[in-house]
């Protein structure tokens, strides 16, 4: 080795030994960032650990609040509802109607109306009620409406209690979900067939007392009369016959059938009137089982 080469080698070794041990190597010269690399200072995404690798502690996210319920409350019924009420007259049942604001509690409405009793016009026609306030339906299941115990229904089966129960049974069984009524204290279950004996031979369901009618008057109901023949007359305020006719029930002479007829009348001026429904006696031709319904007759012109 020449003298010059030896001196150069010694100089390199001297400089190497004097370097800071913490500096390490400088590495390769920096080059342009490869395509797709984040810019300087941008956070670097940390890859998720491979499947099976325990993850480090994570912050549990607070669950999002449940969405507001989209179910709305059941809307209140609108309009009106007409219920049939069964009052008493001459120790038998007779029907009438009430039209009231619509409600989902139709059975409660009907019982409250029974307790309220007849209107002045109905009372003048002899209608009455034996049902006191406070009678309530506690449940309806399998076609049976159960009535809560009440002192007025806890008596022995006297005619008055039987008629009171009949009012309730015939009124509640107009609804399609009720076929019979259960009373407690004492326990008894009754349907319409069990109380058919409290009906008069002729029932008029239409028209009702005080109703305004026009010609022809629709007259309907049920009857158990001789040869199923039902006779009808329309009277004006003076008692003069202004219309008459007859119809036949679907059953008669020992069974109860339905009847319906349209009876025309002539009346120049509107005013009070009466619809009479009766049976003509086969013995002497007299009017028997007469039912009179006070109405308002429209003028026929």
From TrEMBL:
Residues 107-191 form the GerMN domain. InterPro entries: GerMN (IPR019606), Gmad2_Ig-like_dom (IPR018911). The keyword Endoplasmic reticulum does not apply. Residues 53-62, 69-80 have a biased composition (Low complexity). Residues 26-81 are annotated as: Disordered. Residues 1-21 form the signal peptide. Residues 31-52 have a biased composition (Pro residues). Pfam families: Germane (PF10646), Gmad2 (PF10648). The keyword Signal applies. Transmembrane segments: none annotated. It comes from the Bacteria. Keywords: Signal. This is Sporulation and spore germination. It comes from Micromonospora coxensis.
